[in-house]
Design brief:
- The radius of gyration is 25 Å and the shape is globular.
- A 3-stranded antiparallel β-sheet has the order 1-3-2.
- With 457 residues, the chain is mainly α.
- Among the domains are: 120 residues, Orthogonal Bundle (Arc Repressor Mutant, subunit A); 102 residues, Tetratricopeptide repeat domain (Serine Threonine Protein Phosphatase 5, Tetratricopeptide repeat), CATH 1.25.40.
- It has 21 helices and 3 strands.
């Protein structure tokens, strides 16, 4: 692949990169042995596909990956997979949300197919299969990125096989479902690309996975991928990729409440951006540094840095960036209990973002609802929070569904409707538990407060 180096047949060792095997209870050894007997009767083209698929690094396979690896139309790839499944050489796992029907090898059939590939395929086949698999994952993940986060910076995509087609993903919901279904395979792709020296592919995969990291908040995957991706971008000498990946790495650290580490990362981003005269990234770094101070409760420093970022973004004509910084400035006003000012800021930010993308507009709307509740305008507060929460739930953002539900609970608490408030806090807590211990702890405190209030009534 262009921009990469070091991949040779001997360097591709998939064993440590396969996903953990989950044995299928209904595939007994005797059944597998019988299935292997069907191999000699396969048409030669189908037999070769069987061999090639044993060389891919994921442990599950679908028509899109098969088409890419074996140079087939997607429809024909689906037919061949069904044929291999019908004779017991692949196990049909059924359809997954966001994917076609998914198949996998039993460990004995994979060993059988790999031994045939070693004996019958020409030298270099495993390398080619790896490259084509990685290209397909990179192309499809990039298609998801463009659908889900259209404002994410567009960077290089080095594809070695121009005949490969990305999976067809018609909308944002399908794209997010594909990312969620494939996330373990994508992490395997990042690891193996870095391991064999395909560094451009490594950082480009991590960059393209941004919408999944941003939506799901799997911090273990977020940090591992960014460590490998940043190292790969550094090895490629791609300064812009280094800055962007450092920034999204810092966003994860901040979301995980590793605030001092996040501050170090964003300051490094700012240093690199200033050195390269990259004003847009420098303004982004100031925005993020201000956010860290905001999360740490250092409101005066947060306001100073956020105002600097806002001025820079306005000078660049970056209206979306101005609105995003305004959300943060509104949060400073909210935290300082200047709810009237917060209302004005959030309302302006919502107006600027509503035509841009539902996610950021809904964030502004949720904060507007929280501000209106503090001002005593509960009717508008509930309208805003109900609409924002519906948007987050519809699009699968558990973190912000939880946050807006918690805000609704706060609004109900202010009205003395403690029973309904408790219900909202419990729903928020259920969503927070697997993704944010810090947020879950805050909601538990709110639950204790409303429970005490109910006991005192």
């Amino acid at each position: 692949m262009p921009g990469d180096g070091g991949l040779t047949e001997g360097s591709v060792n998939h064993r440590q990169y396969h996903l953990p095997y989950q044995p299928a209870a209904d595939l007994k050894e005797v059944v597998v042995s019988s299935s292997l007997d069907a191999h000699p009767d396969l048409p030669p083209s189908t037999a070769r596909i069987y061999r090639l698929l044993s060389l891919v690094f994921p442990d599950d396979i679908d028509a899109g990956l098969t088409a890419a690896v074996c140079r087939l139309p997607a429809g024909q790839a689906a037919e061949v997979l069904q044929q291999l499944s019908s004779v017991g050489l692949l196990e049909n796992l059924g359809r997954q949300r966001g994917r076609d029907t998914v198949y996998r090898f039993h460990h004995r059939t994979r060993q059988h197919a790999r031994s045939l590939a070693a004996a019958e395929e020409p030298s270099g086949t495993e390398t080619e299969v790896t490259c084509r698999s990685l290209d397909w994952y990179l192309l499809t993940t990039t298609a998801c990125e463009r659908l889900v986060t259209p404002a994410h910076p567009v960077l290089d995509r080095d594809i070695s096989a121009p005949d490969i087609l990305a999976a067809l993903l018609p909308d944002e919901t399908t794209a997010l479902a594909w990312l969620q279904a494939q996330h373990a395979n994508l992490m395997a792709a990042v690891r193996i690309a870095h391991r064999v020296g395909l560094y451009a592919t490594t950082w480009q995969l991590v960059h393209a996975m941004w919408p999944w990291f941003h939506r799901v908040h799997d911090y273990n995957a977020w940090f591992e991928a960014h460590e490998l991706g940043f190292d790969a971008a550094w090895r490629c000498g791609h300064r812009l990729a280094q800055r962007i990946l450092l920034n999204t790495w810092g966003v994860g650290l901040r979301s995980d409440r590793q605030l001092e580490r996040a501050l170090e990362v964003f300051e490094q981003v700012h240093h690199l951006a200033v050195a390269d005269d990259d004003q847009r990234t420098a303004s982004q770094a100031l925005h993020e540094i201000g956010n860290v101070h905001l999360d740490a409760g250092r409101f005066a420093e947060a306001e100073r840095l956020l105002q600097q970022a806002r001025v820079m973004r306005a000078a660049l004509g970056y209206e979306r960036g101005v609105a995003l910084t305004d959300i943060c400035l509104g949060r400073v006003a909210f935290a300082s209990q200047d709810f009237a000012r917060a209302t004005d800021i959030f309302r302006t930010a919502f107006g600027a973002l509503v035509a841009e993308h539902w996610f950021n507009a809904a964030r502004a709307l949720a904060w507007l609802g929280a501000s209106r509740a503090q001002c005593g305008d509960f009717a508008e507060a509930e309208r805003c929070l109900r609409h924002a929460s519906k948007e987050f739930a519809t699009h699968g953002s558990d973190r912000w569904t939880a946050r807006s539900t918690e805000m609704f609970g706060d609004a109900l608490t202010l009205q003395g409707r403690t029973g309904l408030a408790r219900d909202h806090y419990l729903r928020a807590l259920t969503l927070y538990k697997p993704i944010s211990p810090h947020d879950a702890a805050r909601v538990r405190t709110s639950l204790e407060t409303v429970s005490s209030d109910e006991e005192g009534q």
